[in-house]
Amino acid sequence: MHESRWLKLYFGLCIAAGLGVLLAYTIRLTWTELLFSLAFAVGIGALEAVRFVFPSGEAVSVSSGLVLMVLWLFGPGAAMAADALAISVSGAIRRAPFRSVLFNIGQLVLSLGGAWLAYSLAGGLVGRAVFPEALPSLLLSGVVFFLLNSVFLEVGLALYKQASIWGLWWESVRLFWARWGISLAFGLFLVAAYPYFGPLFLSAVLLFVGGQYVLLRKYAEANQQRAVDSLLELAAARDQFRPGHSDRVLRYATALAEELGLGKDDVRLIRYAALLHDVGMSSVPQAALEKRAALTPAERARIQQHPADGARLVSRLAPLVPVARLVRHHHEHYDGSGYPDGLTGGDIPLGSRILAVADAFDSLTVDQPHRPACTPRMALEELRRHAGTDFDPQVVEGLARVLEREGTLAPRAGQGLDEEITLTIKHLKDYVAASRPAIGTPRPAGGTASAREEALLREIRQKAAGVVALYDLGRVINASLS
To answer: What's the pTM value of the predicted model, to 2 decimals?
Structure first.
């Protein structure tokens, strides 16, 4: 979606007005006040990096509380300067677009200006926030700050999406009022405590929060990597009874995604989903998968549960939530007759539609308990017969073009299949490691972890251990017979 002329004008006005107000207030600051602003900017940046995640999934940063404390105790100039410095440094570290950094500075400066006006009109004075007399003016100022901040952001989003400003703003209030309240309460706490303990108290609070953050971050990063390893082990353990299935699906899905012109980021997520698409199978009894006779209703229901189970497992890692969505829907049918959600047509993620064709193509071209393997041409004709019902016709035709052009779906040039899989696993681990894990209890896609989900995790761990043990025993027997 392209930016409209109105959106560009809005950005320009916010940036110009915000920078004008910032200059008008900061030009009055003394060198001492500027140094104080620099110190507060460091504190704001440190608190902004700390995001505590509650079991409900809410991620909360209390940096706005410190900004409000600076506003109430040291005036608008110091607060605006500190916030602008913190945003500038954060933007430089994240390599954010220069205009977005300027817009963030502009809208926050204007929000602080409105909050300061409300505080002054309610009788508030710089450095004289005495409890409980000053509480009404502080509360009014904090509410105005958060409401203005949300208005500036949601107007920009509405102009970009060409959606209702009121609808987006009200949704923002509904979703974020709790975290606003937490930040406001933190700011009030700092204001109440500052007169008694002064800068030493504030420094101790920031050092404590920063120290806890560093320790929890290291712990979360280590847990995140262990979780990735566990997912890959589960996927590999199930694959031992269908050797190379996920590897081949990865190869086919990659070729299809590239044939359909998807961008590098989308292709990467599809490759990760191909590696993990059957991780939910780890809780399905092997007897049901190898059964030659018709499945019982209970066995069929258990197998049809595996995409949702796999998605829940994958989504426990926040960076892989987009991958979990592809995993969940890779058995949906184009006409809505698939599972687990009965999605139709374009409502099914394109990556999932690609995985569905890649998965079916591999199943058709490999020996199964109930039938021998098809040739690639026979498999393609079978997929074409089900195009428009089970499969996306465009994806099936993409497969036909690849087979016609290349005759096969080979690994990338210069790579064997094992090398390609090893490289993809390394990229997956690097991708997760590059994402800063949230501190606290992350929420899986679809809600908080249920008792059934925890039982599923225990069941999968137990069965995976048994699968690996059986596979290792089989390797030993084969080696002794050779």
So the answer is: 0.51
